[in-house]
Amino acid sequence: MSEYIIKNGHVFDPVQGIKGDKKDISIKDGKIVDKVSSSAKVIDARDKTVMAGAVEIHAHIAGPKVNLGRIYRPEDKLFSCTPTHGMERMGGGASIPTTFKTGYEYAKMGYTTAMEAAMPPLFSRHVHEEIRDTPIIDEGAFPVFGNNWFVLEYLKNHEVENTAAYIAWLLRVTKGYAVKVVNPGGTEAWAWGLNCLSVNDPVPYFDITPAEIIKGLIEANEYLGLPHSMHIHPNNLGNPGCYETTLETMKLAEGFKAKNKFGREQVMHLTHTQFHSYKGTNWGDFESGAKEVTDYVNKNKNITIDTGNVTLDETTTMTADGPFEHHLCGLNHLKWANVDVELETAAGVVPYIYSPNISVCAIQWAIGLEIPLMMKDPMRCYITTDHPNAGPFTRYPRVIKWLMSEKARETQINAFKHKDKVLSQTSIGSLDREISLYELAQMTRAGPAKSLGLSAMCGGLKPGMDADVAVYNFNPDKPVANPDDIETAFSRCAAVFKSGVLVVQNGEIISTGHKRTLWVNAKVNDNPQVMRDISEKFVKFYSMTQNNYEALGHTFVPNPYAVEVDATHA
Amino acid sequence: MTKTITDVVCPFCGTLCDDIEVIVSDDGKKLIEVDNACVIGTEKFLHSQSSDRITRPRMHQEDGSWKEISYDEAVEYTAQMLAKAKKPLMFGWSSTNCEAQSVGNEIAEMSRACCDNTAATCHGTSLIAIQDVGLPSCTLGEIKNRADRIIFWGCNPAHAHPRHMSRYSIFPRGFFTGKGQMSRKLIVVDPRVTDTAKMADIHLQVEQGQDYELLDALRVAFKGEWLPDVVAGIPSEKIREAADVLKSGRFGIIFFGMGVTQSLGKNHNIDEAIAVTKDLNEYTKFSIMPMRGHYNVTGSGEVFAWQFGFPYAVDLTRGFARYNPGDTSTIDLLTRGEIDAMLTIGSDPGAHFPISAVKPIANMPSVCIDPHLTPTSGVSKLHVPVAFNGVETGGNCYRMDNVPIDCRKVVEPPEGMLTDEEFLIKVRDRLKQLKGAA
To answer: Cβ A98–B316 below 8 Å, yes or no?
Structure first.
């Protein structure tokens, strides 16, 4: 593999504590190295910003509900088709781009790793087919566990070891990366048209509460010592007053400490926090609960969060929170799609228009920005749009602009129809913090990589790490004349390396790289009871056989990268 | 000695049964017996063993006779045809695996083709309705474990999806349906007294072509509003009785087939059926699911969607993907005479399209990739027989509820035969050369 040296760039790397110093980055055989030979190709990064490749911790980019969105929203392609171009296959879709376009767009913005946030285990083969067809970026997928019958039955009797054995088995057969929980218990209740709106609502028939599911899964996750923590979308998403459920959910993590060999410190990752930080009793007195939520997170070091920024676009919401999507359809009366998945989960899809002329949408926008601006430790708060729920991931440059420039926020606030309401219901107007490039690198690189247990591999520029590098046309020495320049700079990289391969140059794709699928191979002690339970469920209740359930390597995961975990307890 | 292969996936209908057992000879060359499959599925497996099977490509000659050619010559003809055509059509895809579909899409992109699958004549209208009003649905295991109200509307699974009722919808004893058939109420809507209708608790013998009216009447009945004495040939008391049965269930589903998607009203019928499903979710839990025909028509829609953004009727002629059924859909393209070359794979338009759409195929450069002799292979210039997908090669397929299942190879194809995917890869590579030279 060829050698490269990225010269004279302003380097921002939280892993080594480099804050914009001029430094050369050397690349050899896919890794960052101390030195390269004189024959290394030179990338001139003078007056440019150099960071590690960005890490997406939560996005819905592959799988059945994403594709259902593509199938049932032809209108999403109306002004967003891209023709075949050089290395690039044709693409289409604004809020739910085709797989090829998804890979290209992430790479052009400097993202090199992304996590698909909700994989229904029964559909893992579909998820992996789409991941295979998403070029360049490394991807992993989180199977959902919070409404899984095995988990509900084991945790009802607090059988943590059995739950852990089941998790290890499911991660292996679905080639999954982490334990995802969506509306614990509520989605199972949704199979009967019901929901669990608090952590204490019992799940119909299974007679277990969301609180027991959440605590049990944290315990099982730490019993296994997985690279990522339990990753949760709590109950009661999106309702006025839901911040209280969020606080109750986070309190369940109290007393738990992370046990793993990957340097991860949290036991709970709370995702798209914006959707869970609402105060008020109805849509009229709707207000921000960002302060209450971030106050709690600031004090409790065993929790990480991501933002879920509303970008004020027309988008497509999709979540394994089936009852929420039904509820949302009742609010906006747009087309409702739903899929209940046997024994495991459900999903819903509803288009949504975040209009700047609607006060609730504008307040949601403000809450999404309040959260990162109120978080004291950028290593524990990551930028997401919960793509495509709060907005498409292609809007990250715009979110970065809002975070880095108070002026840009002001311009947007002044453009809102209900500006006064936004200012009275949130504290966005009084926040003058501007995120620095170093903090940005923490929020989009080092932080998410650490939370995912990948800090030895990506998210930094330390010699020995994978050579995932992004070079932006942004000169940190010069004052920003126009905030829009920030958005432009972060939209298209001057250069991007993925595992040492130059994949983007001057904003164009020049190689599709060697895309990998990340998964976690957790070894546990033999557990005959769990194996028997699994085969019994397949014989009696699944609609397919156990032998056809696994996502086998050859077709679905052509280039796997297994993170090994040894959880065999003596 | 023989070998038994278990967990085999049946490559016939959208039910995609995956519990088939196949007994093969010790050398893996001969398929001897098929267990668990329905009569159609069994026949599909055994047909691969027939002695009169065509194993090499054949060109249609001027005098109507066929001349055997090599696969390489077939690849050359196909690649040249696609390279020269201004607006080629690549149709079918429903009886092949997703891997082949993926390669086909690469070819389509290079040759700026129109691509379409058999939804064109089946559930394309359902897809249009789904794009209008959404789709509350579920997987088939949910039906097995929970459903106590089943509607078959305009479909006859007793004959078209023979194991559907025993595996998923009527007979199985699931987690919350321990009494099997006894725990379910079956409503069949069909103008004919089919074998499915004979099993129904309530058979609504709708007047032909009045499905929309009946669906509408059900919505009125849910709300207890006024109805005429008779709607769509059915007395209002019977409609109200059916409405009460549906509302009083715990979990219900509407399965619908081409009796509603291709009869008067087409996509509007499905709009209304989805609206019925949404209405019922105000009272209980309800889902709706199209009874997809071909075993991988669903997969074709999925692959089109994640690669091009649309589930069928995709037009790539402008260099990016467009979708406008009626304009970019196969039958319309053919009858308007816009197509100048046609590749058919995993489907038989010759048997199912109107004659005005079949005639043009005979008059243009055309390739039919199909293990069988069909009306389409008969009118095409080149017939390329291939290995049976799901029997002689594996590959991923999608069940009617979108659940993917990886098919299994159970026997070797006849010596020297290519699979769909292998043949298409050769065409793609040759096309790359031709396009590179141009």
So the answer is: no
